[in-house]
Specification:
371 residues, Aspartate Aminotransferase, domain 2, 2 domains, 12 helices, 13 strands, globular
Amino acid sequence: MIYLDNAATTLRKPPGVPRAVVEAIRSCANPGRGGHAAAAKAGEIVWQTRVLAGRFFGMEPERVCFTANATEGLNAALRTLVNAGDRVVISGLEHNAVTRTLEGLGAETVPVTAPIFCPAAWLERFEKALTPDTRVAVCLHVSNVFGAVLPVKEIGAICAQRGIPFVVDASQSAGLLPVRPAEWNAAFTAMPGHKGLLGPQGTGLLLCRELPAPLRFGGTGSRSLAQTMPDELPDRMEAGTLNVPGIAGLGAGLRWLSSQDPKRLLERERKLLAAAEKGLSELGAQTFTGPEQLGVLSFRFPGMDCETAAAAFSDHGIALRAGLHCAPLAHRTAGTLPEGTIRLSVSAMTTPPEIEGFLAVARKLRRSGRT
């Protein structure tokens, strides 16, 4: 199989990731719940991964909270900041992890729309939308549908000037672009561990520059006599048993990334996308591209249902994703509703021969009339 669905989850990991997961399953108990060697080893793995993540993102380790995924982190951030009726300004590219949470909270959600690959337009329109009655602003760093990079640093500066808390979804950028919550003036920054950070599924991070409201309540291994959640981070956000094997794998992913040149990784991924876009354009596909594109290429063939085309690729061993990608708002902004697009997404593990193999199948399917 040629796997090109990395925007959903990276399938291939550095070898150290599965090794770390297996070793933790075999040797780790519950961190903070005992003084014996197995509990101490688990606690050390959790702490060292927290330190690695803090170093990677410019955060104090205690402000790095482990979550099950980016969705959990975004829920925690928004439930901390948003009440029913609050005006919340968001980008018109947001994932359902943001839009459904705001709907559930009863917020007045105000989407900002702009040409997808025009950061200056996004900034200008955010600035106009951030009125004095805005309670919170939310913006993803990179679109999971189109790979467009939004100007979160500049938007965060405006939010800081106007006293508006800012939440960033770094799901598609963490591990490839610099993620710096302090420079962005972001109260909370959420990300998964299983995408660009190359960790296992069931892991994520919430970087907290403000104190979050607990999303879960229960044991933390600290202050057990008190019946309220601790005020201190990270305990306040980490009730219950942590996913120690997942955190161990996430730590291995972070160590691998820390050993790489991020500029080379970025350049390599963009070359892969450029090769795919060139080949698809030659076959008559409609592609959605722009400057500074990252990790993702959406496309479709005129007159062909996207789900049908993706199924044809799957029959030939090519893993893509078709449809709305859990982000109908992004497709509304782009004018690609109701069908959506086919999405090709690469990772640090994707190789040029895999792109060549994908294009060979695309040419075969076009000749046969299946795309």
